[in-house]
Design a protein that fits this description.
Elements: E1 5-6, H1 22-28, H2 31-37, H3 48-57, E2 65-70, E3 76-80, H4 81-97, E4 105-109, H5 114-126, E5 129-133, H6 139-148, E6 153-157, H7 158-165, E7 177-181, E8 194-195, H8 196-201, E9 217-223, E10 231-236, H9 239-249, E11 258-261, H10 268-280, E12 284-288, H11 294-303, E13 308-311, H12 313-322, H13 324-328, E14 337-340, H14 347-357, E15 361-365, E16 375-376, E17 383-384, E18 390-391, E19 397-402, E20 408-410, E21 417-423, E22 432-433, H15 437-441, E23 444-445, E24 448-457, E25 463-468, E26 473-475, E27 478-480, H16 482-490, E28 495-505, E29 509-518, H17 526-540, E30 548-551, H18 565-578
Helix pairs in contact: 3-4, 3-5, 3-10, 4-5, 9-10
The chain binds 5'-O-[(S)-butoxy(hydroxy)phosphoryl]adenosine.
Length: 592
């Protein structure tokens, strides 16, 4: 691959970057020093919500806008740090009034509305564990995660409750309270739910965060692997050290920034960078209720004078499809830094960005397990288009090969492909897979955490993404486990066997495709295909359900009878190369 660089001049910056010299920053970096930059709680405690909200509300930034929420109609609603403190205090008191204990899990299933942010931060203040679920999930992924996480409280909206939760609630014995945000003009019904706003107004506005150990669990995120059920990834309050450091050094946040992370808090990026990092930095963050729309997004960047933007390659590719002319109608001169994460960002997208925005997009790499950005193209560093960049100061990254007997061997030669490994620990490293110590242990060999991603490192220390070592699917930046999809398809009476893979897609990166063999007595026809698709969409939601179903009498298997997804993948690559003309719709973010 061509290693084109976009040279960054240090002169002429509107704002001097926080990280000016990469090597110098690495040499002088220490996590302890970052921790000392934060406030902490009396007695050595550390609480994410104190750093994100109360610290600013107690000080000079009390009247600074923390959250600017853009409603569906496009109107902006401001929440200052002071107001956010009062609301999150109320939510923490509300949990206490319901008898919720620290460590209990509080789930949120909601579109992007202010109550989601209040619940997240109030939960952290109370020291219960926050877990958010993607609102476009169908009832099955919601049920699985609530059950695995033994959620005690669920905060949701009236519409989502009616459509997705009501039907599964009896199967969740641990779920004690459902707190519902009503649609405007209606009162959320039923004696088995609690009205969010009524509950908050019934409790006190003052709350003192109790002592919080930095190692206390704070966040639970579900992620998918090749096998088994989704994994509950546990993060602790100390993770805020990582959120803060990367917010400063990678996203280059300065006090007057207006920051917009487009990721939904149903995924890790939307929590680490759509809630925590910008607030800890004390900036104004934008949250948009609406889904992707090119004109709306350009309009938002322009009207809100967004200075730092964190988005995803799929969104960039959608904007590219709309063409440069559309972008030209907007004043995007406020933007200072563009960043992206979640899937490979191809060199063309970086160059397109230079043309349209006057700045390259800076790719960043991390995972649910790493909790914060590990590898990045830093603002002051030359951007190598197509590369993920270089490790964050304080993070040591290596390319390794796994050897027989579970050992690993570092690969020294530049340009050689191997698995990306990170030297453990760092503050935002996950501390457990929920109830699965063995699976957690398997991620580590000696001091090294193995990421499951294949990469190369060039002569200058820039990392390049090669692929995944496992079978998980990245569709529009969302990680989807094939097993979850296969299980739901297997429920259908016609299905004998099924294998699910990601089919390459120009916009979404990959889309979910299922290969199905039928039981005797069933015949391949369009009606059956539609029925299967409908079944999957109803149970899984539009993001996880397969976009395409292919019938195949025999699926490739190992001798022991396991379906080999890699062979389905290879088979698919063969046929897409033969016929590149048929492309399905990209990802549909919301349900119809
Ligand atoms: C996987 C992690 C990072 C938070 C959002 C997703 C892929 C991530 C990049 C990148 C190529 C990337 C990797 C990684 N990925 N960033 N810049 N270039 N691939 O977190 O859902 O846990 O997914 O996303 O395969 O392992 P996640």
């Amino acid at each position: 691959m061509k290693a084109d660089s976009i040279i960054k001049e240090l002169s002429g910056w509107k704002v001097a970057p926080n990280l000016k010299d990469y090597n110098e920053a690495r040499a002088s970096f220490s996590w302890d020093a970052v921790r000392r930059d934060l406030d902490g709680l009396p007695g050595g405690g550390l609480n994410i919500a104190h750093e994100a909200v109360d610290r600013h509300a107690d000080g000079a930034r009390r009247y600074h806008v923390a959250l600017r929420w853009i409603d569906r109609a496009g109107a902006a609603h401001d929440y200052t740090y002071g107001r956010l403190r009062a609301l999150t205090n109320r939510f923490a008191n509300a949990l206490r009034s319901l008898g919720i204990e620290p460590g209990d899990r509080v789930f949120v299933l909601s579109e992007r509305i202010p109550e989601l942010y209040v619940a997240a931060l109030g939960t952290l203040k109370h020291r219960s564990v926050f877990c958010s679920l993607f609102s476009a999930y169908g009832p099955e992924p919601i049920r699985t995660r609530l059950a695995l996480g033994r959620g005690k409280v669920l905060v949701t909206t009236e519409r989502l409750y009616r459509r997705k939760v009501k039907q599964i609630r009896r199967t969740l014995p641990d779920l004690k309270h459902v707190i519902v945000v009503g649609n405007e003009g209606t009162t959320p019904g039923g004696s088995d739910t609690i009205d969010f706003h009524r509950l908050l107004s019934s409790v006190d506005e003052a709350f003192t965060i109790p002592p919080t150990d930095p190692e206390d669990a704070a966040l639970l995120h579900f992620t998918s692997g090749t096998t088994g059920t989704p994994k509950g990834v546990v993060h602790v309050h100390a993770a805020v050290i990582g959120h803060y450091a990367t917010g400063r050094l990678v996203l280059d946040l300065h006090p007057d920034d207006v920051f917009w992370c487009t990721a939904d808090p149903g995924w890790v990026t939307g929590v680490s960078y759509g809630i925590i990092a910008p607030l800890v930095a004390g900036v104004t963050m934008i949250a948009d209720q609406e889904e992707f729309n090119a004109e709306r997004w350009y309009g938002l960047l322009q009207d809100q004078r967004v200075t730092v933007w964190y988005t995803a390659p799929t969104a960039i590719r959608l904007l590219m499809k709309y063409g440069e002319r559309v972008a030209g109608r907007y004043d995007l001169s406020g933007l200072r830094l563009l960043t992206s994460v979640g899937e490979p960002l191809h060199a063309e997208a970086v160059w397109w960005s230079v043309k349209v925005f006057g700045h390259p997009i800076h790719d960043t790499w991390w995972q649910t397990e790493t909790g914060s950005i590990m590898i990045a193209n830093f603002a002051a560093m030359d951007v190598r288009s197509g590369s993920m960049g270089r490790p964050m100061p304080g993070v040591e990254a290596a390319v390794i090969h796994r050897k027989k007997g579970g050992q690993i061997k570092p690969v020294q030669e530049p340009e050689a492909t191997g698995e990306l490994a990170l030297r453990a620990p760092w503050p935002s490293m996950f501390r457990a897979y929920l109830d699965d110590q063995a699976r957690y242990q398997d991620c580590f060999v000696g001091d090294w955490y193995l990421t499951g991603d294949l990469v190369r490192r060039d002569r200058d220390g820039y990392f390049w993404f090669v692929g995944r070592a496992d079978d998980v699917i990245k569709s529009a930046g969302h990680l989807i486990g094939p097993v979850e999809v296969e299980q739901v398809l297997m429920e259908h009476p016609a299905v004998a066997e099924v294998g699910v893979i990601g089919r390459p897609d120009e916009v979404a990166g990959a889309v979910v495709k299922a290969f199905v063999s039928l039981k005797p007595g069933y015949e391949v026809d369009e009606a059956l295909r539609l029925d299967l698709r409908a079944h999957a969409r109803k149970r899984l939601g539009p993001v996880v359900a397969p976009k395409e179903i292919a019938f195949q009498p025999v699926l490739p298997k190992t001798e022991s009878g396991k379906i080999v997804r890699r062979l389905l993948q290879a088979q698919e690559r063969g046929s897409t190369e033969a016929n590149r003309s048929h492309l399905d719709e990209p990802n549909e973010a919301e349900e119809p």
